[in-house]
Request: fold
Amino acid sequence: MFHYSAVVNSCRTPRFNIHTGFYCLAAILLQISICSPSYHFTEDAGAFPVAANGEPFPWQKLRLPNVVIPLHYDLFVHPNLTSLDFVASEKIEVLVSNATQFIILHSKDLEIMNATLQSEEDSRYMKPGRELKVLSYPPHQQIALLVPEKLIPHLKYYVAIDFQAKLADGFEGFYKSTYRTVGGETRILAVTDFEPTQARMAFPCFDEPLFKANFSIKIRRESRHIALSNMPKIKTIELDGGLLEDHFETTVKMSTYLVAYIVCDFHSVSGTTSSGVKVSIYASPDKWNQTYYALQASLKLLDFYEKYFDINYPLPKLGMFKFHIIVIFFIRTCFDFFPPSLSM
Reply:
């Protein structure tokens, strides 16, 4: 009996020591993780993934850090429907919540040509932005903007990025689509579909629903095309070479996946709901005579949903886009908080 208990105790003691060791190690690691912010970029290259250029990428996680918060995007886009690519630029107003020496954004298949940073004071006095080093980590579809000195908490900064890319071949991001006329001619249009995480294919951004912001969008196009976006158009500027540039009103605060814009040669028919929302149906010229039924149905449906949910549609216009006999509704459920629209 004594021998058996001694054997049992001799077996339990190592187990107890091993378990105790694990608990102590876990407590130490937890203390380290609490005391050392995960967004701090140390010199230990082995602690970080490797960027496309072979340098350490200063962020390990799939989700973005929350130390830099976007407030407003000023986005310019110029698609070329002949060469099937686009050039673009953006200026993102951000708020820094914790000191950091890098900004992490999403970007997929975009060529970053230039990135600069301005403080709020620099912007006020029209000082040029400081050029930033850009690192790319394709496995997480992220880029890192390295700043020369730590950003100061509770201050606003402006990140300006110039970039370009090909129009995507699939049905995600900013992609090219086609339709065939009655005469057999194939025509091209540029369309966006960002839900759930494809806005990063069109512009560098904080492409997670948590990071809501306002968007001011400008689209450059040829005179034979029209441009549509979430908000009504403010004005159109005539440029050299026969190009036009449409400026749209600033959106409500929303996630990146709700941003939408289109460049095409479609025609439209419009009506107004009982609550005063203008609804437009867009279709290719050959299909324009099929839009009236869709318009009448849409007006009735929007009236019905506003009364059923007792929630007014929050934007001044709603647009719908018709490919052949399929109508794509750019309206989300009421649970999306602020649905987008495509409007002139």
Remarks:
- The chain has three domains: 2-36, 44-260, 266-344.
- Residues 266-344 form a domain with the Zincin-like fold (CATH 3.30.2010.30).
- Residues 130 and 196 are 33 Å apart (CA to CA).
- The helical segments are 2-35, 120-124, 291-309.
